[in-house]
Design a protein that fits this description.
The chain is an alpha/beta fold and about 240 residues long. It contains seven helices and 13 strands.
Length: about 240
């Protein structure tokens, strides 16, 4: 696990949550007094990750100032600046020269707890191009933000990946943590906006490439809106979610 590199996505603007963020980058919004991004870096370090990239676009100097070189988290942090935002998958394509093995991708404005080693072993067992961490909205704490509803085959292969709301459909939801193999690079166009959920994952499924879904233990708190942020605060303050 210590050789596994991670990309933490932190380039997005905070337009949907500006009443909470005050305009600062969304990953720097504080939960229990600590920025969301710092919670994520603490978690990655606790799971044995040592080398991390963070992609930047919106007010990048503020994230650099808050995180520095990552040594405060026991990490080696490097930054990938995007003058024009490239989207979640485009951010991975932008790191192509640095990427020669399995890559972990984490959304920097979510709060998630899961067993990364178990996820990695699951990925190695099935050997797909992509494995997607999923939470079950019936039993895992969450904030009602959908990152795509997913239907699985009995063996864990993803049958359907659909963007949309929480109403109806599968109880399994994209948790915004992925393991990717370098082969996916050829499916991501260079130098333009390209997302995992809207673009890459549907394209891979349409052409018959295997993707697998791994159901986590723990929780996934999406923090895209003021309502979801306040729900996360309630979960933390009530003790239902433990950030440590």
């Amino acid at each position: 696990m210590q050789d596994l590199k991670a990309l933490v996505l932190a380039a997005g603007k905070s337009s949907r949550i500006v009443s909470v963020s005050g305009g600062q980058p969304k990953p720097l919004i504080r939960i229990a007094g600590i920025p969301i991004l710092a919670w994520n870096l603490r978690w990655l370090s606790s799971q044995g990750i040592r080398r991390v990239w963070i992609n930047l676009h919106y007010r990048p100097e503020e994230i650099r100032a808050a995180i520095g070189d990552g040594s405060q988290f026991g990490l080696q942090v490097r930054y990938s600046y995007e003058p024009e935002i490239l989207g979640t998958a485009g951010a991975v394509r932008n790191l192509a020269p640095e990427w020669a093995d399995t890559l972990l991708v984490v959304y920097g404005d979510n709060l998630i707890r899961m067993d990364l080693e178990a996820f990695f072993l699951f990925h190695r067992k099935h050997r797909p191009k992509v494995s997607v961490a999923l939470f079950d909205r019936r039993r895992h704490p969450h904030t009602g933000i959908a990152g795509g509803l997913v239907t699985l085959e009995p063996d864990g292969r993803i049958k359907v990946f659909g963007e949309g709301g929480m109403n109806g459909g599968s109880p399994l939801v994209n948790a915004g943590v992925y393991l990717l193999e370098p082969e996916v690079l050829r499916h991501i166009p260079a130098d333009r906006l390209y997302d995992f959920g809207r673009d890459l994952f549907p394209a891979l499924l349409a052409q018959g490439d295997a993707m697998f879904g791994y159901v986590i233990t723990g929780y996934c708190l999406g923090l895209d809106t003021p309502d979801s942020y306040h729900q996360a605060v309630r979960l933390v303050e009530s003790g239902e979610v433990d950030l440590s």
